């Protein structure tokens, strides 16, 4: 318990000290996770909506695969991405290993199935009605898609927040492909893991608290957004 | 709009739920479709509205197959309409926005129709705060605002309060008389069919058993099934 | 109260600010730093094209803070940015073998020599050493300190035979390898309920040891950095077998064309130079009153 108490004190101290390093770690975390969430969303929202309103062969099988991928362990994703982008891997020429781009790739792969699955679930509920309405009012395909996104915005937004939460809190993938390099690829979760292995519990707790506060802010905004409806 | 139905069948889970050899809905007719539950009424109008595809056969709209131009010229109001998650005004304006009509004209047309339907006071309300009758009126206003030449109503006045039913019937009648549109109305309410429609078709077991003017079908039915249905409905 | 519109625009503003801010920090900073050094006229002109160097090392080396102390000086002088990837010793050597790192700084002499003999590395140089210590509960219930003195194997034998708790790293790290070699020397196969194979980093293992009132083998640096927070004390130190030699090896550049051999050689040259060695010797003196690493390049 002493550690948790000291961690809280230390986290306040850290944040007030305006220490460049901790802010850089926090911002890199946000940058990597937000970017991968946004890239994932661009892929996952249309795919999830189409899966929710269209009938096509092997749909049930695809959905089962999608649900499985929603629970992919980050270390597995990290390992696979690592094998592809390492210097001797097939994509070694792109020189992505141990960069923030590598972390974004890994998290995008991790988060895309999650957002797709959640958007699919949301669309399955009300998508058919919205599609029919759009059609009876004379919307073309693009206009129908825009209307679906607009009308399903709450579940889409919730899906993105879940995806972001997964990205910002995972450590396995970014540790492997990013390498936890100071000033380059050190993010909040890898810092926590490293500090724990160094036995510096208070620092780990301090960053853990920052992570929680950020989650709280994001979720509070989501809550306001939903309450407004 | 002139509607020609040819050899239409619909099979669902190996069960034939619709089989209409041929049926003609001439332009400017106001057709009521009546019949017991499970008769295939909703499936038929959904196929006409392009929301479902027939297993065989086809429908011609003004002697053409379904295309975007035809699609933009017809609409359907459901028993439980979906209202967009925005204001009443935006709901009614939406079909016009889809057609790239400028803001001033949208405003004029929305104000006109909500005035006619007596829902002007609701225009700034969010759609999800409306009662059933109010929501249904908004859905009807949204359907009529772009002057479709084919209007399909699928039990659009079921389960709402009587005063809303009459307001909607007036609006539909008024629209029919002023725009010479074709209207297809699925209803379980025979009195309503008598009040509004000039032709009536009776459906049972996926086929159109008989059709004719309202008076013919309602007062002098020839088929046993029709007689039984109408007798029960008037009880 | 918040209105929905307000909440929405606030959310939008916050997210976009964060994104822009983090884009700025996440992307531009490393380059800015490099440019700063490149433009600095006081800098010695270094004829190395590729200024990115990947150094693969062990977690304990990085956790000691030594690299954060000496590498900025190297970067200032050469403009070469050393990216430190800290993994287990086994993984560090594997990264060299696969050509994923440019230079290795590890402490498992036998494995390192084998690495060079197999043609994966160019040459191995001694850099420095630190030492391992055996720590245990203050009360020392097994009287290990009294009985074993400086003799590490004697101490371990005592713990094992008296069913004392021994926490092992169990993660194939250099420290773990060292511990295993000592058991081998004793002819003991460590197992049983009192032998805890943790599979974790040094700091975590020290904490576990402290909680369980057991014994563990640790490097001095990690112990010193945690000394104030734990109750465990040094039980055995100073045995020659506990010295931990660090070596530096440039990875064979013929493995793939991305290996930055030029910069690797510069780093090796610098770390073995008088200046590099002096810096290593100074590290830790101000904080603990003693050097954590003893430079011994030949």
TrEMBL record, chain A:
Gene Ontology cellular-component annotations: plasma membrane
Keywords: Membrane, Transmembrane, Transmembrane helix, Transport
The ABC transmembrane type-1 domain, residue ranges: 26-222
Transmembrane segments: 25-53, 65-85, 97-120, 203-223
Chief place of localization: membrane
Membrane topology: Multi-pass membrane protein
Protein name: ABC transporter permease subunit
UniProtKB/TrEMBL annotation, chain B:
MF annotations from Gene Ontology: ATP binding; ATP hydrolysis activity
Signal peptide residues on this chain, from the entry's feature table: none
Gene3D superfamilies, per database record: P-loop containing nucleotide triphosphate hydrolases (3.40.50.300)
Pfam families: ABC_tran
Keyword Nucleotide-binding listed: yes
All residue ranges annotated as the ABC transporter domain in the record: 3-230
Keyword hit for Disulfide bond: no
InterPro entries according to UniProt: AAA+_ATPase, ABC_SmlMolc_Importer, ABC_transporter-like_ATP-bd, P-loop_NTPase
Keywords: ATP-binding, Nucleotide-binding, Transport
Identification of the protein by name: ATP-binding cassette domain-containing protein
UniProtKB/TrEMBL annotation, chain C:
Segments traversing the membrane: none
Coiled coil: none
Keywords for the protein's UniProt record, in alphabetical order: Signal
Extent of the signal sequence: 1-24
One Pfam family of this chain: PBP_like_2
InterPro entries named in the record: ABC-Tungstate_binding, PBP_domain
Highest taxon of source: Bacteria
Residue ranges of domain PBP in the record: 50-274
Gene3D superfamilies: Periplasmic binding protein-like II
Name of the featured protein: Tungsten ABC transporter substrate-binding protein
